Amino acid sequence: xxxxxxxxxxxxxxxxxxxxxxxxxxxxxxxxxDVVGQEHLTGPEGAIxxxxxxxxxxxxxxxxxxxxxxxxxxxxxxxAVGLRFVAISAVFSGVADLKKxxxxxxxxxxxxxKTLLFxxxxxxxxxxxxxxxxxxxxxxxxxLVGATTENPSFELNAAVLSRAQVLILHRLDAAALTRLLxxxxxxxxxxxxxxxxxxxxxxxxxDGDGRFLLNQAETLFSVQFEKPLDPAALGDFLQRRxxxxxxxxxxxxxxxxxxxxxxxxxxxxxxxxxxxxxLTAGEEPLYVLRRLVRMAVEDIGLADPNAxxxxxxxxxxxxxxxxxxxxxxxxxxxxxxxxxxxxxxxxMAQKAAWRSAKETGSLMPPQNILNAPTKLxxxxxxxxGYTYDHDAEGGFSGDNYWPEEMAPQTFYTPTDRGHEKRIAxxxxxxxxxxxxxxxx
Length: 440
Known about the structure:
- With 440 residues, the chain is of the alpha/beta class.
- It has 21 helices and 5 strands.
- Helix 11 (196-205) crosses helix 13 (231-237), helix 16 (285-300) packs antiparallel against helix 17 and helix 17 (306-321) packs antiparallel against helix 18 (327-339).
- It starts with 22 loop residues before the first helix and ends with a helix.
């Protein structure tokens, strides 16, 4: 039988790296123990470590940022449990490619050799294509290992997720990236031409991507420098990695959530940081402004009514000045809402009032506050007994404004923070006066 993937049949660990190949290829891990930064999965107590120890691999989805080892781990898993390894990319494969893969896997299964099918960028397959995996996963024709940089909850079918365990790969931290650089220097038998400070800057510039870091290191090794580069010289020589940020994907929602919660938690420094992360990555400024307006009404409300004014003024300023000058107004609004006294009392009151309105239906207001534009309406009591509050002592009548079938409700309870403290005092005085007048 012709095997379109025969070239991929030897296990990954058995493939010797080419001496003159790219640095990342030469440093390719030869066992799961060599994989850095994912010990929570590959270690003895990790999900992958336990599968390998048991000699049995279930279908899994590897979810993590670029350059964290998803492909490498998949190849090493196939070798560790003795499975034939076949890799496809959802970017370049279609239904015909999948049919060929499944047909070959079924033929190999009849010969007693099972297949690990690695699907890179699995979220790129549409829902119908994802459903096409199910019968082959269920009958054991293939063990599916899918790799994705996107949140599986949003991008993968529920049917696929129910048959596969989602394992989360972490972005590589500074310690893991430093270990990669140590290996690179050992392989090249010379240190990187960097000062210690520049070496730290190089690690930071990788933004958790090991592959990117090794490619940058290879570029540095390829050039002869008269003296080690300092951080400034390194920045001039290498282009800094652009932060991973998809405006319609999870990175977008993660950062706006972090911004909102930093504002709610009154941490202006963190709020400004996440604002900068979003705007420097290309987020639409008006989207951020809309969210700041929401924070002003949801998390501050009447504790500082000026927060809403500041956010709307920032929107007008940005539309008037544009970028980058107008972004200063956004930063000012962000700092204002982060440092303002917080209250969700108005937000909770609105939710409670809406819920009550739905529950009580069409109860008639009391007759004394009904409008009486006709003689008949006056005759049947509309408006009768209404007290004009401006004529009452203290500008407050204390009348009842609730439907007769409904007891007075309390939806809004102001806090003792900011402007709401004064509102609370005013409400308390009105309640006291209302009780006195009712008693009288």
